[in-house]
């Protein structure tokens, strides 16, 4: 009698198609990324393209690490926004500061990380690993932001999303004057109505310049409370189907979080669900999709917000959706271009959701559900 095949042998047989000069990148990932972290990249590509980019899913992305100086804003993030594949963003301030260099016509260069930094200092060359640029790039970008926040429309308290939207408008105007296009993530986010938050407004050169202007009487304050509630309202609106349908739907919608790196932006995105459930007392179950690219480990305390399974215990991830989670332990500068190329090859563009334009609508939903809560 033949032995019954084990249920654990139901996975796809490892028998890849040989690679040749005509192999397309998306086919390469599907057919040749069979095991180890290559398999996690394949799973990440497929989760993002097949599930997270469905029309009923709202996609937030978090950016940690020096991604924009490496050109990934131009090569990957901007194409994803233009395709309607990114609906809202949480980033370190540093990524947005360095993104601005490109939008105002400043240059960054490939370099040699093995050079003596004392020699670079003598030449007034600043180094981010193997990315080099002149010290004047920092000074010119600081000057841009200082002049920017002197405008009357910046003399008030606002969320970081409103600040980045206004900054994106001015960066886009500078691009036009310089004959540039699609160089700044903030400028494209402004054009497509993608709200951009930063979880730690003072932790970057942008925040440093805002603080400096306050010493001279500037009235601009970035209020983190607005960010906490606005991001929670986006997730609630997504889960209630408001984003997709314009009103609450019995079928609801889904929320997906795409995490590059970890750190404060990761937690800020994931804490939206505890804010809804634990703090506001609103009935919810967690994000539906969780995709993270990281080189950190949970056992050292370095994997901020930890694994998807641990996030379930906090209410951050819907326990019924745990199979819809992938963690790829690989460099974001390797994974993001691959995931971007795969998604653009496998999915047609989505209609931009323009969530920035609907922030007050989403906040009204959050307030109305909080009013019904017994947690107040």
Task: Write structural notes for this entry.
- The relative contact order is 0.16.
- The longest helix is centred in the middle third of the chain and has 19 residues, at 160-178.
- The chain is an alpha/beta fold and 376 residues long.
- It has helices at residues 25-32, 36-52, 72-82, 93-103, 117-122, 135-148, 160-178, 185-192, 205-215, 224-239, 242-245, 263-270, 272-279, 308-313, 332-346, 359-371; strands at residues 57-63, 88-91, 109-110, 125-128, 131-134, 157-158, 196-198, 221-222, 254-260, 289-294, 325-329.
- It has one domain: 3-Layer(aba) Sandwich (Deoxyhypusine Synthase).
- Helix 3 (72-82) runs parallel beside helix 15 (332-346), helix 10 packs across helix 13 (272-279) and helix 10 (224-239) crosses helix 16 (359-371).
Write the layout of secondary structure elements.
Layout: H1 25-32, H2 36-52, E1 57-63, H3 72-82, E2 88-91, H4 93-103, E3 109-110, H5 117-122, E4 125-128, E5 131-134, H6 135-148, E6 157-158, H7 160-178, H8 185-192, E7 196-198, H9 205-215, E8 221-222, H10 224-239, H11 242-245, E9 254-260, H12 263-270, H13 272-279, E10 289-294, H14 308-313, E11 325-329, H15 332-346, H16 359-371
Helix pairs in contact: 2-15, 3-8, 3-15, 7-8, 10-13, 10-16
């Amino acid at each position: 009698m033949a032995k019954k095949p084990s249920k654990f042998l139901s996975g796809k047989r490892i028998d890849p198609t040989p690679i040749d000069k005509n192999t397309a990148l998306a086919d390469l990932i599907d057919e040749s990324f069979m095991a180890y972290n290559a398999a996690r990249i394949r799973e990440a590509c497929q989760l993002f393209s097949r599930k997270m980019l469905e029309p009923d899913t709202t996609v937030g992305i978090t950016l940690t690490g020096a991604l924009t100086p490496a050109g990934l804003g131009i090569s990957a993030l901007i194409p994803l926004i233009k395709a309607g594949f990114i609906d809202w963003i949480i980033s370190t301030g540093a990524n947005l500061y360095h993104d601005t260099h490109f939008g105002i016509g400043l240059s960054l260069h490939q370099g040699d990380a093995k050079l003596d930094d004392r020699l670079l200092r003598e030449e007034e060359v600043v180094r981010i690993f193997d990315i080099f640029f002149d010290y004047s790039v920092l000074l010119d970008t600081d000057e841009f932001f200082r002049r920017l926040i002197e405008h009357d429309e910046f003399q008030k308290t606002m969320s970081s999303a409103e600040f980045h939207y206004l900054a994106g408008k001015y960066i886009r105007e500078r691009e036009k004057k310089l004959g540039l296009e699609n160089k700044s993530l903030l400028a494209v986010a402004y054009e497509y109505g993608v709200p951009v938050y930063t979880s730690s407004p003072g932790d970057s050169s942008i925040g440093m310049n805002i603080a400096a202007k306050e010493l001279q009487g500037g009235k601009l304050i970035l209020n983190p409370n607005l960010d906490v509630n606005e991001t929670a309202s986006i997730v609630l609106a997504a889960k209630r189907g408001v984003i997709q349908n314009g009103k609450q739907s019995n079928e609801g919608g889904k929320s997906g979080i795409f995490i590059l790196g970890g750190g404060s932006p990761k937690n800020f995105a994931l804490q939206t669900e505890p804010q809804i459930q634990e703090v506001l007392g609103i009935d919810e179950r967690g994000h539906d999709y969780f995709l993270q690219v990281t080189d950190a480990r949970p056992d050292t305390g370095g994997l901020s917000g930890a694994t998807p399974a641990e996030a379930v215990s906090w209410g951050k991830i819907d326990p019924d959706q745990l199979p819809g989670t992938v963690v790829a332990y690989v460099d974001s500068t390797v994974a993001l271009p691959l995931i971007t190329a795969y998604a653009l090859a496998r999915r047609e563009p989505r209609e931009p959701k323009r969530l920035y334009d609907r922030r007050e609508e989403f906040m009204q939903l959050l307030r109305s559900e909080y009013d019904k809560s017994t947690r107040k």
